[in-house]
Amino acid sequence: MNNLNLPDYSRFEAIDFFNDEIFIKYALHVEADQQAYWHQVLGKYPEKESALMEAETWVRILNAQKIHKPITNSEDAWISITSRIAENDLSRTNSNSQFKRIAIWLSGIAALFFIYFVAVEFLELGRKTFQSRYGELRRLSFPDESIAILNANSKVHYFRGWSSDKPRELWLEGEASFKVKHVAIKNRFQEADSFKVHVNGIRLTVLGTQFNVKDRRGETLISLIEGSLRVDKEEAGGFSRIMKPGEVFRYDGKELHEMVSEKTAKASQDWTHRELELDGYTLQDIIHVLEDNYGYHVQMNASELANKKLSGTIPLSSDADILFVMRKVFDINIIKNKNQLTINHKTKK
Amino acid sequence: MTREEKAWGEFRSGDEGALKFIFNIYYNPLFNYGHKFTFDDYLIEDVIQDTFVKLWEDRSKINETGSVKNYIYKTFRRRLIRKLDYAPQVMAFPAAQDKIDFNIELGHDHQMISNERAKRIQQNLADALEKMLPRQREIIHLRYFEEMDFDEIADVMQLSTKATYKMLYRAIDTLKKHLPRFDYLVIIYLLNLSRR
Q1: Is residue A164 within 8 angstroms of chain B, CB to CB?
Q2: Which of B42, B112, B145 sits opposite A57 (nearest CB)?
Q3: Which is it for the CA torsion B137, B138, B144, B149, positive or negative?
Q4: CATH fold of B115-195
Q5: Could you say which of A49, A116, A313, B23 is the most buried, measured as most Cβ atoms within 10 Å of its Cβ?
């Protein structure tokens, strides 16, 4: 047999075999060719016999754990599942009867009026909305002294009168950078101390922390700068992930992905100083910024440049600055007509 | 396509029998997995039933999946942990999840020739597992009992692959620290004796 292909096992101890993917497979399902392989290893490293045996035993006794059986047999359990399913279906069809439907509508409308009046007239609670125009940054402070900077063309709303016995909640469209005030007593976190941001169908829960949320074109980028943040999605295909500082997650409307890219969590906040760190950005990304934050429609006639990467920092103080930098760096022609931009190659003279 | 994947497709288009087929495959394994977190059998039973009732209600919104097992384990685990989160009002931040225990009850190895040695190895491993954090024990369980690979473990435990590697590395390190080394020497000595 050819011994040359064997990896070097000379420094392996039982623990290393135990952690070796090929070895685990062998220990769990002994098959002829695998047996031959480990026989060969033993031939070359006879002193490893006891380590191999030990590791094999660990894997086997972990795998041979006693299986704990359910109290109900599966047939009965299934019956109670189907009866619960039927019950739910029934309650749904019942509520379809016309009388009930009208009653629900009427009471719903009445309740809405009631809530509206109570909220606005008496307690002065109500929905408060902040919206930024194209090209405008807004600084918001919330009743709990948390602050947020709202990027251009973005919207945030919440219901006034945050009280201390309920979590602080707000809804975001667009991009914002948050600095959340920590209100919990040390080691006594309660649901009521949390701060929740609803965005694009998912929910972000934090205590005191700094993070950036960018929700554009159906995609949500969450960058955590400080503290701890949990991303939840209820319903089918839901998830619950906890983020650590420095991590960037992307939610595409269906699933959550951890981003491994040049766009760092820290750089995600650069726009709040009206700057844009370009590392990792392509021309296409900048076009998206022009569209999302300044309201332009961009016609791209030099599409082979779209994926060209950039580095450096550009000022975001005005759209004219961005256009200036783009013209210089890419050597392109940009024609501006109201909010329509057309990007062409420079015509050779 | 395996029978299981086929059943998953049929269930999503509204076939209750197909869901029953999947239920029958996973009922016992899920119960066993749940028992590692808690000894409250009624609670485990409840959460399994909830999981399947919810699966049925959401069937039209559920996607195709690479692994039925992973999808079901992940959904079940998430619901169970939410129920177990000691005070329901406490947020499930890392600290809270760490509190939820995970118990591995080792089996016996019948292939080992010396009964005494098998017992000793078992005891050592049990002691070392005791020293681990619950989530490290869970990784060990998913890897060696459920035979999942890294991506699958990461998915079920809702961790990044990087964090999973790190956690497994720590688990292995804990094992390394707490497994007595003199055992090897004795064994090597005995082996040498028998060769003479």
Answers
A1: no
A2: B112
A3: negative
A4: Arc Repressor Mutant, subunit A (1.10.10)
A5: B23
User: In whole angstroms, what is the distance from residue B18 CA to residue B25 CA?
Assistant: 11
When CB atoms are compared, the residue of A64, A77, A190 closest to B107 is A64
Pairing of strands A210-216, A202-206: unpaired
> Checking DSSP bridges between strand A219-226 and strand A248-251, what pairing results, if any?
antiparallel
Domain boundaries, chain A: 14-63, 75-122, 128-258, 274-345
pLDDT (tens digit per residue) in A184-207: 665 555 667 788 899 998 999 887
**Residues of B in Cβ contact (< 8 Å) with A224:** none
- Residue-wise burial string across A58-86, b where 16 or more C-beta atoms lie within 10 A, e elsewhere: bbbbbbebeebebebebeebbeebbebbe
Domain A128-258 has CATH 3.30.360.10: no
pLDDT, position B144: 92
Judging contacts by C-beta atoms under 8 Å, the chain B residues touching residue A62 are 104, 106-107, 125, 140-141, 144-145
**Per-residue confidence (pLDDT) for residue B51, from 0 to 100:** 94
Mean pLDDT score, A303-331 = 79
Interface test mutation site (partner B, options A81, A90, A92, A224, max chain B beta carbons within 10 A): A81
